[in-house]
Write the structure tokens for this entry.
Amino acid sequence: MSNCAILTAAGSGQRMPSSKKKQFIEIAGKPILLHTIDKFIKALCFEKIVITCPASDIVFLKNLLFSKFDYNPGQISIISGGKRRQDSVYNALKIINETTEIVAIHDSVRPFVKISEILQSVELAKKYGAVTLAHPVKNTIKQVKYHKVLKTLDRTNLWEIYTPQTFRFTLIKKAHERAESENITVRDDAELIEKMGYPVHVLEGSSHNIKITDHFDLMLAEKLFKDLYEENTL
């Protein structure tokens, strides 16, 4: 049995004031996506890494990974994504070997996930079937409509959801097949499992695992990278 990681890299970067897509913006001389790939390679538990991206990026990304940075094309596959994130993930699931045991699905612009968190996610997925990284909400959360507060939510049981979200391969593929046949749209892969009535285990992760989506996130990421690198905890 083997494990596979799926990295979604289809973001257009509309909230980022840059001519480059956010996953290709460099931090410390290396594109964000590549820092993320490195974490999953260093985890030493994935025989295959599948990267989903727009068809127009495939040639560029292959040149970037296999020519400029010398990654192993035997370990990494690059495929065309879909209109929605879940379409991209499903495209990846369809090419993964049926003998795969565990699949970890991760946002390409979350380069600060810890290797220990990845490994824990894989082990918990073997035990529970479905697991997501998350962190308890820190701030007061209010439900708002038309710029008016409807109510203040009890944050005791509210968690901010991160990735990777990690699953038994057979479970997550079945969930995506159901979504495809029944035209179900979700916000993340864990929600597909929830809709099946199957429990999703929550693993508390570090708040460093930010998703880099705008200029503020990029500034924070550059500071985080410097600090964590100097502390040797990157």
Remarks:
- The chain has a mean pLDDT of 94.
- DSSP finds seven helices and eleven strands in the chain.
